[in-house]
Model the fold of this input.
Amino acid sequence: MPNDFNTDLLLPQELSDAEQQKILQQTLNRTAPGAAAPRRNQRRGLPRRRLLVFTLAAVMLLVMSSLALAEFALNKDFLGFFNASNGQLPQQSGQEINQQVTNNGATLTVEQVLGDKQTVYVLLNFVAPEGVVLAEGSYQWDQAYVWLSESNGCGYNFETLPDDDPTDNRVRMMLCLNADASLQGQNVDLTLGDLKLYDMEKMDYTTVAAGEWKLSFKLDYTPSSQVIAQDLTIMLGEAEVQLASLEISPLTMILDLQISNAEGYVAPEGYVEPQGGGVEILDDGTELRFDYADSPAEVKLGDILSDFDYFTVTLKDGTVLPTRGGGSNSDGSRYQIIFEFGEILNFEEIASINYMGYELKLQ
Done:
């Protein structure tokens, strides 16, 4: 393949080693001989010995779960990426991966992921061979392929993260990906080839680490979201756009749209269409190039409906949330628009959401 939100986002505080041991000891003390046992309903016919075994198993599971929660903490790079404090990040939507592969003396590690239903952020760490300096700058891959096991399509990009030491051989990146279906339980196959750095003098990218790195991992985090039904009709010329729902997570907002008479689309006054064009591959393999002005109406609709300038989220303090990115996908007359934000979304702090000149429902 080339190219469900709790309003309470407060998280448990990370426990120190001493606190973890205290919790463990107090829990075990309650199950020690002579300790007062909690009241419980006896089930007739079930031996007391089996009851004790079940109790111990439940307690140990609770202890192990508590310690696992304490041990997992989202990397500080996620805090910087979303301009967030630790208490704002939806930790239940994060997952440890820690898979790595080495080739040509360089190692690529997938450290953690953070995501919601259809968008995921993957934290990458790349270490070049000894002696290679990866200076601060903008990095990209000469080849970058992402395959999802259940989705028909996805859009993605890589962002270079701030460099704490521009004289070392490391660079950290964030893979930002959104898909046309739920990501939960999907397998991700990642193939990256030849790391490149943008050269300001040459105004082009230069390869700084050659090789190919392949990794595969499963997404197993817990997405959360809140779906709010909408009843809005937007006319773009003769094309009718019906907004059915708005789905809000701490990371993104998803609009579910139904289009009628796409052929009657006319851009609103003042809208500037994207520049450039595209390539259509015919049945015989021939590539047919065309200007954007000649693109199908469905393509133009997808572009304007996902335009950042037509989607504004205003908070109760008057600030407007910065939009980081997003995209659109369509299946016939159904369109889905995903907007990503540069900060964590707190539903209780949202004052209004405006789309295509209309204010959307928040309840």
